Amino acid sequence: MAEPTNTPMPGSTPIPGSTPRSASPAPPLPSFAQGSSANGLAQRFARPIVLHIGDPVRFNPMTYASFSDMFQVVRPEVEERKRPEFIRALREERWGQFSAIFRPFWGTGGEMGKWDRELIDLLPDSCRVFASAGAGFDWVDTKALGEKGIIYCNSGLAAAEAVADFAVAMVISTFRHLPWCMGAANMARDSTGGTDLLFNTCHTQATSASHNLRHHTLGLIGLGNIGQQLANKLGCPAFGMQIHYYDVVRKSTEVETRLGATFHETLPSLLHVSDCVVVCAPAGRHGEPLMTKEMLGHMKEGSRFVNIARGSLVDEEALIQALEKGRISTAALDVYSHEPKISPRLLDLASPSPTTEVHPGRVMLTCHNAGGTVETHVGFEELSMRNIMAVLRGEEAITPVNLQYLKRPEKRLELTDED
After folding, report:
1. Kindly report the CA angle at 305 between 308 and 16, in degrees rounded to 5?
2. Half-sphere exposure of 320 toward its Cβ, with a 13 Å CA cutoff?
3. Which stretches make up the D-isomer specific 2-hydroxyacid dehydrogenase NAD-binding domain (predicted)?
4. What percent of the chain shows pLDDT beyond 90?
5. Interval 184-196 mean pLDDT
6. Among candidates 100, 98, 76, 99, which has minimal Cα distance to 88?
7. DSSP collapsed to 3 states, 11-62
8. Cα–Cα distance between 125 and 127 in angstroms, integer?
9. Do residues 32 and 38 lie in contact, with contact meaning Cβ atoms separated by under 8 Å?
10. Residue 101 and residue 210: Cα distance in Å, rounded?
11. pLDDT digits over 37-76, tens only?
């Protein structure tokens, strides 16, 4: 399914030591050669076509003015974006030999469904870049795009701060049992003895189940932009957590020293020592779970679990079983296996009413909200446009994710009189 409107331009908190392209500020707007104008260039060269799928730009009119001067922007209507008609239009070359695809929002632009080889094989050879809102790219075959010579750029950099902020709240929830506390208080609107009992039970019993975060070990699965911001926010001196991480590529000594982060060469090693595990890694191209039943079995008895990445990364059935048995004490989930549907058993675990032998309200559930801020969407638009402007000028993409699959050399489009 398409990702809900959600994920984030670089936040106000810089991330020194991150991957250079992903952490660098957005470049200045491309400028035309002195003495030339957009109209003059349009007469000398046919402007490259950009296929804009989804709603119009809302937040960045100045960047869009430059963007639309540089390129001929074509935006299909909703009916044209539905898969059968979209395929027909590509076969007919209805939108010409476009050079880029631009999707600035998550709520629209996904009407054609998954970008698989059926769609990608129909794209014109002129297409060089696909820039989209959102951090995740499990809805698009980035390998197939790369093999066709198309760079895919996501907008996860724009989401990092919002997602990290949200994850802080979720980690706190797992230590302080916020779903239990909030649910019991909300139900106290009814003055019957049943709700009085819920309030008083939570007031007395949540204390013995709650803990401070300080000195506990935070295990981060993934130490990219989001993971590093989360480490900054929850580590010393703020909340005083001990930061441990696992990633497919170890970070530099400078990054580890700055964050006070300890690297684990294997995921089981990280899980064995972590008091709270946070999944903040991208989903695999084929959607295989990372946290399988076997991996969940490596977690410490009574530890906590947070997922702000993708539901496909977790064997949800195995997680539910671990929560029901009390092996994992509490959890906070923003994403699910079958969004927008949430498992009834997870809903039971989130209830403030005691439905199991262990304490109620053990799971915080949210609706794929982690990256959902106004600033996020401002960044989605801006970063997507800047990625396209950079690539079509023969410069490096800002946030590419599939360069390892690229099969043909990049070509510079002559947008100025300069070589």
Report:
1. 50
2. 16
3. 203-348
4. 72
5. 68
6. 76
7. CCCCCCCCCHHHHCCCCCCCCCCCCCCHHHHHHHCCCCEEEECCCCCCCCHH
8. 5
9. yes
10. 49
11. 434 433 445 899 999 999 999 999 999 999 999 999 999 9
Q: Which residue has the tokens 């709270």?
A: 276
Please work out, in degrees rounded to the nearest 5, the angle formed at the alpha carbon of residue 86 by the alpha carbons of 80 and 89.
90
Dist CA 309 CA 141 (whole Å): 18
Residue 25 structure tokens: 């500020």
Residues facing 131 on adjacent strands: 102, 153
Checking if the pLDDT of 108 tops 60, the result is yes
Bond preceding residue 8 cis, omega within 30 of 0: no
* Separation between Cα atoms, residue 253 and residue 256, nearest integer Å: 5
Structure tokens at 79: 């009916």
Query: What residues contact residue 276 under an 8 Å CB cut-off, 6+ apart?
Result: 171, 174, 175, 216, 217, 218, 219, 241, 303, 304, 305, 306
- Please give the backbone phi and psi of residue 94, each rounded to the nearest 5 degrees, phi first: -60, -30
CA quadruple 189, 190, 196, 199: dihedral sign? negative
What is the distance of C-alpha 202 from the center of its chain?
34
The full set of domains in the chain, from first to last, is 20-158+373-405 (3.40.50.720), 160-365 (3.40.50.720)
Structure tokens at 196: 């009085």
Residue matched to tokens 């060269």: 45
For residue 40, how many other CB atoms are within 10 A of its CB? 13
Q: 329 is written with which tokens?
A: 């004490």
As a whole number, the mean pLDDT across the chain is 86
Residue 242 vs residues 209, 249, 263, 264, 334: alpha-carbon distances, Å: 21, 20, 12, 13, 23
Gap between the Cα atoms of 300 and 337, Å rounded: 24
pLDDT (0 to 100) of residue 354: 59
pLDDT tens digits, residue range 294-331?
999 999 999 999 999 999 999 999 999 999 999 999 99
